[in-house]
Amino acid sequence: MDRAIHRKPWAPKRIVFLGLAAIAILAILYQLFGHSGSRLNVDSEKISITEVVQGPFQEFTPVNGTVLPIQTFYLDAVEGGRVETRFVEAGAMVKRGDPILRLNNTNLQLDVMYREALSYEQINNARNTRISIEQNSIKVRQEIAEVELGLEKATRTFVRDSALHNRGLISQLEFTQSRDEYQYWLKRRTISQENARQDSILRVNQIGQLEESMKRLTANVTMTRKNLENLTIRAPINGQLSSLNAEIGQSKNPGERLGQIDVLDSFKVRVAVDEYYISRVSAGQTGEFELAGERHRLRIGKVYPEVREGRFEVDMEFVGGEPEGIRRGQTLQIRLELGDLAEATLLSRGGFYQKTGGQWAYVVDPSGDFAVKRPIRLGRQNPLVFEVLEGLRPGERVVTSTYDNFGEADRLVFR
Questions:
Q1: What is the pLDDT of residue 224?
Q2: Rounded CA separation 126/187 (Å)
Q3: What DSSP line would sit under 152-180, residue for residue?
Q4: pTM of full prediction above 0.85
Q5: Chain CA centroid to CA 410, Å
Q6: In this predicted structure, what is the pLDDT of residue 22?
Q7: What is the pLDDT at residue 1?
């Protein structure tokens, strides 16, 4: 007799198949709804996604520089006066010592004449004083000569009288007078010698002081005459008189700027840098610019630490010679290098930084269907890329466009 065979409803194979299907469905549901945090659907065509790469990195900042002459000398009015003559015009090439302007100052001329007369009077007085000193010295020497002569005569008389007195041929009175005369001349010689010694010391000191006084007076006369010479403004160097601010009949005050002379043998570049970099810019750092399709390098020669309107200035010199055709006043766009070239993990710059400050970013899932907020840490930067310190690996992709429309969403789901 036949017996009906009933299939078991939960065979092992069926259980495995249903289990796998359930896991797949749960995975899909988890991807769509299972994450905690807020989600936001975005149009993938309206955002920028950039891949993190490994490559060479150099920190730099773009700056503008102006080509200037390597040296500029300013012409200032040492003495004030009225412009009387213009010898050259602005733009002319001048040589050292060439006259440029002549000023007229009547009061200065009268003052110079008075000072010259006063100085010459003092010089004459000093010369007369020296003559008096020399004459007094001559008198002292004459006195010594007279004393030596008197002593010599008294010595001979005393020697003779001593011999005669010993033999009793002269009286005691005559001998005493001869002896006293001899002793008198001895004492007088001593006094004369001391007087001569003191006179010699005093004369040396006085002559030294007079010599110094004569030098100062002569220098005073020279300086007085130079004040008149300063009324003629001359070129201090060879160069181009690039500006001249003086018209015939115009009055100029002492110290007033009259013009400038530029040395056109070579050039430098004056660069304005944001004050943010003032602690990171020093002499010797380099930069580069492009001109006529060629790249040229510059080196910082001098840093001006004064900050004006949020910027400070540096002077840069050309490395390896100046580019052909460079002109005064030309503007150059320069990449000022702030560090050495090194290998780093790099992320392209984008609007996301304004929202996150470089502390987090939306990282695209390998599936490409969504992006998740992830904490990151960025380091140095240049106008092209950020240096990634933590949170990202080469090959990962990051949403780098602005995050202003994403609110506080933890996940971006791409449509």
A1: 74
A2: 36
A3: HHHHHHHHHHHHHHHTT-S-HHHHHHHHH
A4: no
A5: 53
A6: 66
A7: 44
How far apart are alpha carbons 15 and 9 in whole angstroms?
A: 10
Euclidean distance between CA atoms 48 and 33, whole angstroms = 25
Q: Which of 238, 244, 245 is nearest to 263 (CA)?
A: 238
List the Cα angle 43/45/48 in 5-degree steps: 105
Here the tokens at position 61 are: 């900042």
pLDDT attached to residue 380: 85
Could you tell me the CA-to-CA distances from 403 to 89, 180, 187, 362 in Å, in that order? 61, 127, 116, 9
E strand or H helix at 113: helix 106-166
Q: Mean pLDDT in each 10-residue stretch from start to end of the chain (415 residues)?
A: 51 62 59 61 89 89 91 87 90 90 86 78 79 83 88 90 86 89 90 85 79 78 80 89 88 89 89 90 91 90 92 92 86 88 89 90 92 92 89 92 88 88
Phi, psi of 21 (to 5 degrees): -65, -40
- Whole-angstrom distance, CA of residue 51 vs CA of residue 89: 62
C-alpha dihedral sign at 24, 27, 31, 33? positive
The C-alpha atoms of residue 207 and residue 214 are separated, in whole angstroms, by 10
Strand 385-390's sheet: what is its strand order? 53-57, 342-348, 385-390, 377-381
How many Cα atoms occupy the beta-carbon half-sphere of 164 within 13 Å? 16
Q: Name the nearest CA neighbour of 27 among 393, 367, 300.
A: 367
Residue type, 245: N
User: Among 284, 266, 283, 389, which residue's Cα sits nearest to residue 328?
Assistant: 266
* Closest listed residue to residue 254, CA positions, set 6, 76, 31: 76
By the 8 A CB rule, do 269 and 65 touch?
Answer: yes
What's the confidence (pLDDT) of residue 300?
94
For 40, the 3-state DSSP assignment is strand
- Using an 8 Å Cβ cutoff, are 103 and 83 in contact? yes
What residue has token string 């102006």? Answer: 66
